[in-house]
TrEMBL record:
Protein name: NADP-dependent mannitol dehydrogenase
PANTHER family named in the record: BENZIL REDUCTASE, NADP-DEPENDENT MANNITOL DEHYDROGENASE-RELATED
Keyword Phosphoprotein among UniProt keywords: no
GO MF entries: mannitol 2-dehydrogenase (NADP+) activity; oxidoreductase activity, acting on NAD(P)H, oxygen as acceptor
Keyword tags: NADP, Oxidoreductase
Species for this entry: Lentithecium fluviatile CBS 122367
GO biological process, alphabetically ordered: mannitol metabolic process
EC numbers: 1.1.1.138
InterPro entries in UniProt: NAD(P)-bd_dom_sf (IPR036291), Sc_DH/Rdtase_CS (IPR020904), SDR_fam (IPR002347)
UniProt entry tagged with the keyword NADP: yes
Amino acid sequence: IASNVLEQFSLKGRVCVVTGASGGIGSAVAEAYAEAGAEVSLWYNSNPAAKDFAERLSKEHGIKAIAYQVDVSCAERVKEGVQKVVKDFGRLDVFVANAGMPNSAPLLDMPLDEVKQLNSVNLDSVVYCAKYAGEVFRKQGSGNLIITSSISAHIVNVPIDQPIYNATKAYVSHLGKSLAREWREFARVNIVSPGFFTTAMGASDQVRNEAHRMTPLGRQGSTREIKGLYLYLASDASSYQTGSDVIIDGGYTL
Ligand code: NAI
């Protein structure tokens, strides 16, 4: 570990995967990693904006950045995606399991198909990403998994009733802590639990008004304000940190 703290934050030569990277938190994280010198594989599902974004990151920061279309709710696609990263980049250092979707309704108004879909996108996908990235980490003897959870993993008193979403996030938070122990000899695992950020997911008027009213800092976070945390967790600056679930919410959960 470098003694100079700024050097500890460098990701030069590291290979990072970010899922849900076509916008919102995921694209901000991919940008942070490119700015810190990493090579980045941006995973997207249906929005190909990630392709142009990868090209831009590559040009602006002189790093290798490639967008892959991977439906993370499908185990086979995730397995192929991880194999492709190792083939194209030669290794895998940091995997950010960030893709997710919001809850459309309270449980009593929600068809079971939607419950299944939410579990599959928010929860099963993280298990698949962890399993296949973890296999590479174990083989390499090093690795770093970061999971995007939510303050909803910790409190349910948010402006919308979203029990299944809340439960998926509680699951991935606990999964991350458990994996930090399971993988203690070769990889670190940490969790980020955002409050209300200005992305497609946090955009409804109801959410915005409540978030502004209830957040001590008086506003939603911008995705620029989450880049530093993901960089810290991906880099050697956090080398003694594993199994932590870091809340970043402008004080909402105080
Ligand atoms: P977003 O909607 O911009 O990003 C979610 C991304 O996940 C999208 O790019 C979407 O294409 C991708 N995705 C959805 N299903 C997928 C699938 N089957 N395969 C691959 N990709 C898929 O929203 P945001 O806010 O950037 O969300 C990122 C993460 O942050 C999510 O896990 C979300 O639950 C979490 N989060 C967001 C908060 C917010 O206020 N924006 C608060 C707390 C947590």
